[in-house]
Design brief:
With 437 residues, this protein is of the alpha+beta class. The chain is 27% helix and 14% strand. The chain has a single domain (50-161, 228-236, 243-436), classed as 3-Layer(aba) Sandwich (Beta-lactamase).
Length: 437
């Protein structure tokens, strides 16, 4: 049966001042070798670009800043993105941003724009002296980029033989009565709805019960529905298998080995001045959300869950992504095997929207010309990344577009604009011009 594609994304809610849970959702458009992942069939129908991931067998690359010309990019073209980002800030689509571009391990662009704090708890513009300028080491709420880390953690456990793709989720979470699998969580094919409101439920246990009791909207395995619930449950499975909380597991298995010192759930208060601010949430009596996860459901579940809650910098995120481009290793520390990375970042669904294990693949609306070979993800707070194995390229855009409100409009033009600037910079270099022009 041909799979149905249901385009649904993280739905975040604004509560009523009366506290009666009046929720208004927002939408974000949002081979032949044996696999390291037990239970994954050989991909005889893999697309032609899959061999691009074989670059991962080359020596591990560590990131360092350097000139664009070193990696055959035209810096003048790349810098055109500066004006576009400044225009987005001036037009009020986001108050600040950090952009990072790397190719073949050389960071050719790493710049900050605008402000990390611009408005007060009443959404009024602050005096200039009270604002905080965005810096290249500003820490951003990654929102749904968290899903790629949760997926990586799950795939680590699968690779280690402690979890299997076709295990049923109920084997690890007995409260779940419906029959869907780890594979279906990873590929958003469990049939579960995109989102359910949790923040106004009575207590945390009631919220977890609501998640466990939510039935699939579609037959598991037959529809693609991008769902926060998939990754929330996957985080719970990781905890059940590892015997650790999700934040502790990720710290020990991903962040610490890769030296990602600025990546964490629930940042300490001491880091607040470095963290980009999001929006006021008076319905939850949170005031201006600053240094705490923006996503209300994640907040109501303690801040460290599988679909949202991670905070990080562009530099740390680049290390994680370069580790993937290296085939799971960075600076001598391996977090995944190369074949596993390739499978994780290859389409697993065969549907109209291609999906790897937790990673979007071939999404031209934010990946641009890199889409056929690229993987990446977006986040509701205004974050995104794209990696491309064919060019060994990383592009990261971090913004706090929900400051002071989530209703400021889509930043997809700037996501795509960054990718267009990167591809144009590559194509404009004399070594890459068609026909030697």
């Amino acid at each position: 049966m041909k799979k149905t594609v249901i385009t649904a994304v993280t739905l975040l809610a604004a509560g009523s001042a009366a506290g009666a849970a009046e929720l208004t959702p927002s939408m974000e458009p949002e081979l032949t070798e044996e696999s390291q992942l037990e239970g994954l069939p050989e991909q005889a129908n893999a697309p032609d670009w899959v061999p691009a991931w074989e670059r991962a067998g080359e020596p591990s690359v560590t990131l360092q800043e350097g000139p664009a010309q070193r990696v055959q990019m035209d810096p003048r073209v790349l810098e055109q993105m500066d004006e576009e980002l400044e225009a987005g800030i001036a037009e009020g689509f986001f108050p600040g941003a950090v952009a990072l571009v790397a190719k073949e391990g050389t960071i050719v662009k790493h710049d900050a724009y605008g402000e990390a704090l611009r408005y007060d708890a009443a959404s009024a513009l602050l005096p200039e002296a009270e604002r905080i300028t965005a810096e290249t080491d500003t820490i951003y709420d990654l929102a749904s980029l968290t899903k790629t880390f949760t997926s990586t953690a799950a795939v680590q456990l699968i690779e280690a033989g402690e979890l299997a793709l076709d295990d049923e989720v109920a084997d690890y979470i007995p409260e779940v009565e419906d029959a869907f699998t780890i594979r279906q969580l990873l590929t958003h094919t469990s049939g579960l709805p995109a989102w359910i409101p949790l923040a106004f439920l009575e207590d945390e246990q009631t919220r977890w019960d609501a998640i466990y009791n939510t039935a699939p909207q579609e037959e598991p395995g037959e529809a693609y529905i991008y769902s926060d619930l998939n990754m929330i449950l996957l985080g719970q499975v990781i905890e059940a298998v590892s015997g650790e909380t999700l934040d502790t597991y990720m710290e020990e298995a991903i962040f610490e080995p890769l030296g990602m010192e600025d990546t964490m759930f629930n940042p300490p208060a001491a880091l607040q001045e470095r963290i980009a601010v999001t929006e006021p949430q008076p319905a939850l009596d949170r005031g201006l959300v600053w240094g705490s996860v923006h996503d209300e459901n994640a907040y109501s579940l303690g801040g460290a869950v599988g679909h949202a809650g991670l905070f990080s910098t562009a530099s740390d995120l680049a290390v994680f992504l370069q580790a993937l481009l290296n085939g799971g290793v960075y600076d001598g520390e391996r977090i995944l095997e190369a074949d596993t990375v390739r499978e994780m970042l290859t389409d697993q669904t065969g549907g109209d929207l291609e999906q790897g294990f937790g990673f979007n693949v071939n999404r031209d609306w934010f990946m641009g010309e890199f889409a056929p070979t690229a993987a990446g993800h977006t986040g509701f707070t205004g974050t995104s990344f794209v990696i491309d194995p064919e060019t060994n390229m990383i592009a990261i855009l971090l913004t706090n577009r929900v400051h002071p409100t989530r209703d400021g409009g889509s930043i997809n033009p700037w996501r795509l604009g960054l990718m267009d600037a990167v591809s144009d910079s590559i194509n404009a270099h004399p070594a890459n011009r068609r026909g030697g022009e």
